[in-house]
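JOB MANIFEST
job_type = single_chain_structure
chain_count = 1
residues = 292
[input]
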Amino acid sequence: MIHFKMKNKHPLLFAPILLSLLMFSEIKAQSDNAPTERNLSFFDNCVLDSGGYALVLKTMNSTSKEELIDYFTMNPDFLKKIKKEMGPFIKTGNATDIHYPTFCMETPGAHCYELHLSRYGNTFLSCKIGFLEADSTGMITDGGGRFKFDPKWIKLLKIELKKTKKRVKNFNSVADARKYLNDLKKTGKLLHYSRELWQNYDGFFILEYIIPKKEVCDEVDWYIPCLKAKMKSLYPNKKFRVSQISNGKPARFVSVDCEYDVLLNINKLGYKLYQNKWNPYENIHLEYYLNE
């Protein structure tokens, strides 16, 4: 018997989630003439004079003399200055070369940050930054790779930015959380908020998949893409997230995050619904920053 203890963040997916922290595919970048360089500018497609842009610098760890302080700016002139000075950075490896949480938590003297660019509270560009106190170069990770930069850039940035404070709000239901977030957006003070599953889905269910002897998707590398294609065909206008949580033969288990009504016709796929159960999200929360 397989037992699943399900929360808002699936425990059985913890290892893949840690690796996925290194992947920030939303960052737009352009290739330089040299194959080892790339312009990692955050602002290529931003019309900064149109207003509403905010840059948030989150401190992810601290030294004995440094507090966990976060910073922000909405000053368009300063954002233009950053745009001019940021990049190109030298690519030194793949994004998966760095286990970012381990680096931050276990490396003596490590400084780690997250950098987010938002417009009217909607974050659309992010990356992770880390460097050692004694080093002359630091690293930036995004979905395209690992890049080195001068840590002095971060130190100068912190001098110019204003201090802000992370807020955390817990909710009893997805409906309450969505209403709260929508109300925050209407205030015009929202700088940045965390991306959570409840913002796109109502909950999740588990499918038990028995692999047929002649199943075209029986290889692990093709199994999830094939299942996604089948679900997309059945629900062309629905959003869902499919994640493998157990790999075995002849059965595999997958988690499907989605809207509740996707569950109603899931039997058309021919898979068994594990424990015949829908799982609404628990421990629903939101992290956010305000311009105050």
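[summary]
The radius of gyration is 21 Å.
Residues 36 and 220 are 32 Å apart (CA to CA).
exit_status = 0
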